[in-house]
Design goal:
The protein has a domain of 57 residues. Helices cover 40% and strands 19% of the residues. The protein is built from five helices and six strands, in the order ααβββαααβββ. It is elongated. The chain starts with a helix and ends with a strand. Bound molecules: zinc ion (ZN).
């Protein structure tokens, strides 16, 4: 039964339900194409590609073809050209731009990478293995320095608010109690520890310090 179904899928995969030449949305990959270029895209960019195709179809009967593909980090930048009129040429990117003209997709991946705790070597091994492009080390370094500043600003603002809230949560306003998991000294090999103090009442982070033995 399974073989019959597989045969049916293989024979029908490129034909639409009404038998017209309209391409099927179920696209199966051939063995030789498994190493094709992959990229990360955004919903709005995909919609933009549909809009470009729709607008072109209204004014021209030519077909689109990809004449140049460039990977910029995890973003694919594609030059699309019409087969009938070469002036119908568009540069489409798989990511929208941020206000600083950098790609949203690359920033989101950088954000995910930094906040996951992955090492740079894990990142490069992962992206090279999956073939989804790679953000250059210099760009990642630039991102991390800006990201660090932003995180520090948010952190300071957040603990300031948390301390005020913890003080306000004590009815007699004579001080606060903190909870901390400061057991780093118990482990002989724990040279460096990050000790987090949270408020007893609201359980919000009030401070975080790095302790070195
Ligand atoms: Zn055209």
């Amino acid at each position: 039964m399974e073989e019959i179904l597989d045969f049916w899928i293989r024979s029908n995969v490129n034909v639409s339900r009404d038998g017209s030449n309209f391409p099927s949305s179920y696209l199966q990959v051939n063995k030789g194409d498994v190493d094709q270029k992959l990229c990360i895209t955004a919903e709005s960019s995909l919609l933009n590609l549909c809009q470009i195709c729709e607008a072109h179809t209204k004014m021209c009967t030519g077909n689109f073809r990809f004449i140049k593909k460039t990977m910029r980090g995890h973003v694919m930048s594609v030059r699309i050209q019409c087969t009938k009129d070469k002036s119908h040429s568009y540069l489409w990117s798989s990511s929208p731009y941020l206000s600083n003209d950098e790609y949203l997709v690359n920033h989101r991946i950088n954000h995910g990478f930094v906040s996951s705790g992955m090492l740079p070597s894990h990142y490069t091994r992962f992206v090279n293995g999956s073939g989804i492009g790679c953000i250059d080390w210099s760009l990642r370094k630039k991102f991390i320095s800006t990201y660090k500043e932003s995180v520090e600003t948010e952190y300071k603002e957040s603990i300031k608010t948390a301390v005020h809230e913890e003080i306000a949560s004590n009815e007699d306003l004579d001080g606060i109690n903190i909870l901390t998991d400061a057991r780093h000294g118990w482990r002989k090999n724990a040279k460096d520890s990050s000790i987090v103090a949270i408020g007893e009442n609201l359980h919000k982070v009030l401070d975080c310090v790095h302790v070195t033995k």
